[in-house]
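Fold this sequence, please.
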Amino acid sequence: MQDTLYQILGRHSAESLPERKPYWLKVRAPGGENYVRLKNLMRELGLHTVCEEAHCPNVGECWEHGTATFMILGNVCTRNCAYCAVSHGRPPAYDVDEPSRVARAIAELGLRHAVITSVDRDDLPDFGAYIFAETIREIRAQLPECSIEVLVPDFQGREESIRTVLEAGPDIYNHNTETVPRLYKRCRPGGRYERVLGIFRFLKREAPDIPTKTGLILGMGETNEEILAVMRDLRTVDVDILTLGQYLRPSNAHIRLDRYVTPDEFRMLKEEGMAMGFRHVESGPLVRSSYHAWEQAQRAFTPHSQLPTPQLRVQEAL
C-alpha cells in the first residue's frame, strides 16, 4: 500500500499551483434559515465560534445543519501561528458567565454532541483550563444527554491544567498537532512537537478511557514522508482519531500555500492511517478538526453507532 501511496502523492507534489482553487475545494456560500438563526443566537448570547473566526470553509454546511464549534475565552489569541486566521494580541479579561451562555445555546439547539475550543490564553495562570472545565459542567447541568468534545490548546504542557479539564469529564479530548516537526518553528512558533506527544502520553496514563483525537493541516510545505512519520508517532502515543485537511491561506500575511492535496492523496492517507491502527481517520480537502465530529466519534466507537445524529435532533428543534 505504501508504494501506491508514494506514487499517488509524488505525482502531484512538484506541480505548480493552479490560479484558481481546484473544483474539490469549491463550496456554496453560507445562507439558509438555520444558518441565519444560529448566527443570530450567537450574537444574542455574545458567543464566538471557530467557524467564523478561523474562516472555516464548511461554515455554510455545518450551520445550516445546526452544528457549530463554540470558541470560549474570547476571540484574541496570545499566539501568532502563521497559518491561523484568528486574531492575535493581548486578550481582554475572560468572561466568567461565558460557560453558562454556551450551555444555554447548546440546550436551545438540542445538540447531542458539542465541540468546545478556545484561543490560546498564555496570559492566564492556568491557561484557561478552569473555564473549559466550567463549560463542561454547565453543559452537563443544562443538557446531560449531550456528549462533549473539547479541542484544547496545549496549556504549555502543564499537567495540572490538563487534569483540570479531564476531571470535568469530557467525552473526547482533542488537541491538534497541526503540522510536522520541521515546520513548527516557522508555522507554530509557540508550540512544540514533543510537547504534543507528551500531552497524549499523559492523557492515556491519566484517563485511559477518554478517547483522544488530533489533526493535521496539509499543504504548508511538509513532505509525504513527514506526514506518515507524524502519523506513526501519533499511534505510538495511542491517539484514537485523526483528521487530515487542506490548508487554505487566510490572507497574504499568512504562510504561503505550498500545494493542493488531491482527494486521491487524502484517500490513500486515510487507508494508511487505518492500517496503522487509528480507530477513525477523517481525511479530505475540506476536513477540519471538528467537521462531522459526531460522525467521527460514531465511526470510531461502535457502541454509540445507534445513537441519532445531532443534525436530525437539531433540525427537529429548529
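The first strand starts at residue 48 and ends at 49. The CA atoms of residues 18 and 260 lie 9 Å apart.
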